[in-house]
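Give me structure tokens for this 295-residue protein.
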Amino acid sequence: MKASKRYGRDIGLSARMFLTMLLLAAVYLAFLVVLSRLFALPLVLVFVGLFMFAQLYYSDRLVLWSLRARLVSPEEAPQLHSIVERLCAIADLPKPRIAIVPSQVPNALATGRSKSNAVVAVTQGLLDTLSPDELEAVLGHELTHIKNKDMLVLTIASFVSTIAYFMMHNFFFMGGGGGRRNDSSLVLIFVASLLTWIISYALIRTLSRYREYAADRGSAIITGRPRSLISALYKISGKMERIPTKDIREVEGMNAFFIIPAISGRSVLALFSTHPPLEKRVEALEKIERAMEGM
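Here you go.
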């Protein structure tokens, strides 16, 4: 029996993700209705659409390039490949490419536009920090992101938000200054763009946090050991606090992809974080562990 069928769906989590997407769709629809008053809307849609398509299509290469990650063969990293192959068989996934990031910041990420075009990358710091069971749990988390098509979902969810940001950022270039400052339509578009971007920014990050819970849950189901992921999360978080700020800053641009964000200095407000607090993730995993023990 496949891992996905051994343990039922989290209806509450699915409902929260659906509600977030519904609210996001409502905000976007209202924004597009207002934006339709601008003649250049089709051009903006095409421009942003091409930009985001390129971002999605080349996401794997961009992420690997930005982190200086190197794809590794089974001969170069036999344990890593063996774990991924075993987990992919359980999760019914094609095996992704595997890369190692030359960083002592302990972390992992998955990227790619589809299951057949995915990459899982781990840092050298992660390999040096975790036990085999903990590493397996982290890889299970990343493979769940691939199985759930999280890169695609969040890119689509960000589409109209990116349009709103583009409109807001280029307001004056589109006629918002000079002799047209009193144009009520342009003022309305600017305000709508600003509100849409702020609200969608918060909603997208809420969706991102829910998808992290789902990936944690997927790891627990695939491996059958929620406790291993709990241990890995504590180890990664604890070691992160001892990593030099310079090393953290080199990789923190990829925080949305990491299993735990690498943040230098004070952390951002929870409302705008891409990941749930560690204690909440542990609480959810412990609940799954108790449910598994009771089956």
